[in-house]
Amino acid sequence: MESQIEVSITDAITRRDQGAAWVDVREPEEWAASRIADTTHLPLAIAVARIVDQWPERDTPLNISCASGMRSMRTVQELRQLGYTDAVNVGGGIKAWVAAGHPVESSAGLTPQQLERYSRHIAIPEVGIAGQQKLLSSRVLLLGAGGLGSPAALYLAAAGVGTIGLVDDDVVERSNLQRQLVHAESRIGMSKVESAAHALAEINPDVIVEPYQTRLNADNVFEVLDQGWDVIIDGTDNLPTRYLINDASVQRNIPVVHGSIYRFEGQVTVFQPFEGPCYRCLYPEPPPPELAPSCAEGGVLGVLPGIVGSMQATEAIKVILGIGDPLAGRLMMYDALAGTVDTLKLRRDTECPACGDGDRLTGLIDYEAFCALPAR
Ligand SMILES: [Zn+2]
């Protein structure tokens, strides 16, 4: 038997108390500003598809509401056509609810300025208010405020990642400015962490920057890593630091978004401890130094780190929000000259000394010696 297509607020409450699900189909900003407690928010554009996913039984009792009952009526009519016999429109919507003196929840913890700033995130169902709040309470550690760290820091700050840790011991030089856009001509000579903190504060006052003007080594790495980071973005360009970060992050079970660049080629992957491979799984032994030239020696197209660092920021956001398929166990390779992107499957090495199934490294080693470089 079909229910009547529209019910009053009072009837809607009775239906809810008897087990009906209540779906609000308004836009994210409207939902954030005021909403009925214990309603499921599914914006109009995706509502029907999501309802079919979530409640496949066609006799599920469903209350559908919006601001005044117009949009939700369209949803109810679509649902009826799909056979949902007990989907009903809540007449008058949240306006009638408020007029009847019922309480609403509001703001979802975001200020009006934040709702405006992040409105393009909030409009994406995979992010929404809840995702934005997750970003705001997240902590991302950036290793290196240089070529890769610059775009990553800029985009993460703009995205509202609440706390960004910056590790770098360099000062801004003129030769950096060809690609390191977080710095500026006026800040040549300033420490990179201070210069970057300056730029990020200009972009988004929501973001707290935790500067570490240091070079990570076996003595200080855990001091920095043990500050509750959700994800690490590795933008370092030397082998001893890469192995150090790898071993330390595997031991602390923190995912690392790895990026590397050389001339016209960039690579990105996510080292998700024990789920995908780690850096050592891929490179058990460091290559001899002459086969691992740095950007200082080999050069790099200025745009390339902009692309690769932005990809790293994207992966970090995916990891934080738990959406999509992070590049764990996959290496994305971008060739700017050829204009191609290839993705290679990577396997975890069960005999890896850092993340394998047997005896694992429990501490750190001398990474300068391991990579056969003169100690600094
Ligand atoms: Zn490994």
Number of domains: 2
Low-confidence spans: none
Strand content: 15-25%
Instruction: Give me the side-by-side strand order of the main sheet.
Output: 8-7-6-9-10-11-12-13
User: Can you list the ligands bound to this structure?
Assistant: zinc ion
Provide the succession of SSEs: EHEHEHEHEHHHHEHEHEHEHEEHHHEEH
Residue share in helix: 25-40%
CA(first)-CA(last) distance: 80 Å
CATH superfamily of the largest domain: NAD(P)-binding Rossmann-like Domain
Name the CATH class of the largest domain: Alpha Beta
**CATH fold description of the largest domain:** Rossmann fold
CATH architecture of the largest domain, please?
3-Layer(aba) Sandwich
Alpha-beta content class:
alpha/beta
Largest sheet: 8 strands, mixed
Cα-atom radius of gyration = 25 Å
Would you count the extended β strands for me? Answer: 13
- Count helical runs: 16
Shape: elongated
What oligomeric state do these chains adopt? single chain
| Overall pLDDT metric | 93
Describe the fold and architecture:
The protein is α/β, with parallel strands linked by helices and 376 residues long. The protein folds into two domains: 6-109, Rhodanese-like domain (Oxidized Rhodanese, domain 1, 3-Layer(aba) Sandwich), CATH 3.40.250; 120-370, NAD(P)-binding Rossmann-like Domain (Rossmann fold, 3-Layer(aba) Sandwich), CATH 3.40.50.720. It has 16 helices and 13 strands. The protein has helices at 9-17, 28-33, 44-54, 70-81, 93-99, 112-117, 119-122, 128-136, 149-159, 192-203, 221-225, 239-252, 279-282, 295-298, 303-321, 367-370; strands spanning 6-7, 21-24, 40-41, 62-65, 87-90, 139-143, 163-167, 208-212, 231-234, 256-262, 265-271, 330-335, 340-345. The strands form two sheets. Strands 8-7-6-9-10-11-12-13 form an eight-stranded mixed β-sheet, sandwiched between helices. A five-stranded parallel β-sheet has the order 1-5-4-2-3. α9 crosses α15. The radius of gyration is 25 Å and the shape is elongated. The mean pLDDT is 93. The structure holds zinc ion. Zinc ion (ZN) is lined by residues 277-278, 280-281, 349, 352, 354-355.
